[in-house]
């Protein structure tokens, strides 16, 4: 484990797994000024996403990179100029320790090296598919409405992996959001930079976090995503053959 990411190696180099919000860890020298129990909520970590990513990496024997700092310290899945990069409030909870923070210092310590690590890994591995694993809360605490989807597929302009992924998940009987519960055209920073910019098919997979809050749910969803990954391998290979 590095200071910014836990790296899992795997033999199947055609797929790379990412998990930007895998951890709720806060470095000892950073005081967010919040109650400790808030670190267990969705505002601090994508609940279950890290565990699903690890299990999926084992099932696929695929490499994975999992961030090791809480999104309340800095959101690695945002561009450096994004207003929510270092949140001052999240789902109604104030984060007073982020008021007046050295923004450039946090970027240099966490954000920039994390994205350099991803870029270097992708150059070395040259994956044919990138899957980014996230989770979402069934309903926001403040001003939210219930989110009925079990899983959502997020993407920007490149839909090569998204369209077959949505069709496959719906075919398995899952209530699947198409760029929902939020749009990848607005929130897709990591994949925009490291996948779409390099011409690599990719999707962000958002699992509703109440479905992966225990070992049984984690195992079920990692098994489901292993099936999805293999289906995408086949569909992308067919499309590549058709294009030649």
Tally the helices.
Answer: 5
| Spatial arrangement of strands, main beta sheet | 1-3-2-6-9-7-8
Order of helices and strands: EEHEEEHEEHEHEH
User: What's the CATH first level?
Assistant: Alpha Beta
Instruction: Give helix % range.
Output: 25-40%
Net shape = globular
Largest sheet: 7 strands, mixed
What's the domain count? 1
Overall residue-averaged pLDDT value = 95
Total DSSP E strands: 9
- Structural class determined from secondary elements: alpha/beta
Question: What is the CATH homologous superfamily assignment?
Answer: Zn-dependent exopeptidases
What is the CA-CA span between the terminal residues? 41 Å
Named CATH architecture? 3-Layer(aba) Sandwich
CATH topology: Aminopeptidase
Instruction: List segments where confidence is low: pLDDT < 50 over at least 5 consecutive residues.
Output: none
Strand content: 15-25%
User: How many whole angstroms does the radius of gyration measure?
Assistant: 17 Å
Pfam family, one: FGase
Keywords: Hydrolase
Organism: Sphingomonas naasensis
Protein name: N-formylglutamate amidohydrolase
């Amino acid at each position: 484990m590095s200071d910014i990411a836990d790296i899992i190696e795997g033999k199947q180099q055609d797929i790379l797994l990412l998990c930007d919000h895998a951890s709720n860890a806060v470095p000892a020298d950073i005081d967010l000024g919040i109650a400790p129990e808030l670190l267990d909520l969705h505002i601090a970590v994508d609940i279950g996403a890290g565990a699903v990513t690890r299990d999926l990496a084992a099932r696929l024997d695929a490499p994975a990179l999992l961030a090791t700092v809480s999104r309340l310290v800095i959101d690695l899945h945002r561009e450096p100029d994004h207003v929510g990069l270092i949140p001052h409030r999240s789902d109604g909870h104030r984060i007073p320790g982020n008021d007046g923070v050295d923004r450039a210092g946090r970027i240099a310590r966490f954000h920039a090296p994390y994205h350099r690590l991803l870029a270097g890994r992708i150059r070395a591995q040259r994956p044919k598919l990138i899957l980014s694993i996230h989770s979402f809360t069934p309903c926001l605490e403040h001003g939210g409405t219930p989110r009925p989807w079990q899983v959502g597929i997020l993407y920007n302009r490149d839909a090569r992996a998204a369209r077959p992924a949505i069709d496959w998940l719906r075919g398995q009987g899952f209530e699947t959001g198409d760029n929902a519960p939020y749009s990848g055209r607005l929130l897709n920073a990591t994949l925009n930079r490291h996948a779409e910019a390099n011409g690599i098919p990719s999707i962000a997979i958002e699992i509703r976090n109440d479905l992966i809050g225990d070992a049984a749910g984690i195992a079920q969803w990692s098994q489901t995503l292993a099936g999805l990954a293999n289906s995408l391998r086949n569909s992308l290979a067919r499309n590549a053959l058709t294009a030649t």
